[in-house]
Amino acid sequence: MRPCLEAGCPALVERGRCPKHSRDQEKRRGRNWPWRWVYADPRWPKVRRLALVRAGFRCQHEEAGVRCEVADEFGRGLDAHHAYPGGLQQLLLDGFDPFDDDLIVIACTSHHQMLEQADRAARRPR
Predict the structure, then answer these.
(1) What is the helix (H) or strand (E) element at residue 95, kind and residue range?
(2) 14: which residues sit within 8 A by CB, 6+ positions away?
(3) N or C: where does the chain have the smaller number of CB atoms within 10 Å of the terminal CB?
(4) Residue 50, class by beta-carbon neighbours within 10 Å (0-12 exposed, 13-18 middle, 19+ buried)?
């Protein structure tokens, strides 16, 4: 057992935060990321699965015409990414359907992080 990750909390947990601070963190996260409801919607796993099948359970990122080698038959290590300038947040603001599988690409973890950084940069005020 170890102390809760929340500073100053004496509760002992196996990992992470105690139940009280886990709930607090989820509340803060929900306030800061109101578009995250998409991933809790029952349609999301179906759309993600369709995108994985369409991509052949392989990262779709290409550089210089060469496709990324990362693949997994169960989709582990592969993320579904909303391929829209500004990402999911901007897609919702513009009124598009977040469950349209034509707007979703599959990316390995490293390429997904790269795509997310590009989306954040596209949302920044100029």
Answers:
(1) none
(2) 1, 2
(3) C
(4) middle
Tell me the three state secondary structure of residue 94: coil
Helical (H) or strand (E) element with 32: helix 19-32
Q: Return per-residue pLDDT of the chain as tens, 126 residues.
A: 888 888 888 999 988 888 887 766 665 555 556 777 898 899 999 999 999 999 999 999 999 999 999 999 888 899 999 999 888 888 888 899 999 989 999 999 999 999 988 888 877 664
* 85 and 116 Cβ atoms separated by less than 8 Å: no
